[in-house]
Design goal:
mainly beta, 11-stranded antiparallel sheet, 3 helices, globular
Length: about 210
Amino acid sequence: MVAAAAFAATPPLLTAALENFRADAPRGWSFTQATSAEGKSTNERFDATKAEFERWTLIGKDGRTPTAEEAQDYTEMRSRRSRGGTAPKLTDQFDLGTTEVAADSPERTTYRLQMKPGETGDRTAAFLRVTIVVHKPTRTVESIELASTGAFSPTIGVKIVELATKLTYSVPTADRPSLPQAVTTHVRGTAFFFKSLDADMTVIFADYESVRKK
């Protein structure tokens, strides 16, 4: 949860949306996750009915059925990742005191704000701006985009020309909460003047199924 002190200077609509926001899918929902990047692709299924270390299954790799070895390697990788602890919340880095209204309509309000450093030595946050679109009737986040404001060097020898990450979410309905729909990332840059850091990735979430008893 975002600090209460920061909420004091934040528009009430944004406050309500961020209080209810979660970056990943709510508990009790199974889904398929399709990732494509660098000419490669993976399809994964998350089964909320299974035990913690058995919930993820590799169901596709580069447009084909994965081999037994690939499926085993994937299972071991996922198991190690699950033991790695909890990642910091994205909203913890939002500098809510800098919030401005960028656009407003009867259905949606778009906010822009700055990022706070995530840790000591973070030289990226200062060059990013956050754009949040809130659906007014449901007070939920429809999208969050982190985009660079210009070229910058997060570390010696590295120059980032463009950087953007966008997360999109569905609007909740009577029988469905807000659910992740897609994540896109876009990077253009170089390392030590000659190595390209250009990369694009898309993650699509689909085939949601509630496993909670009705």
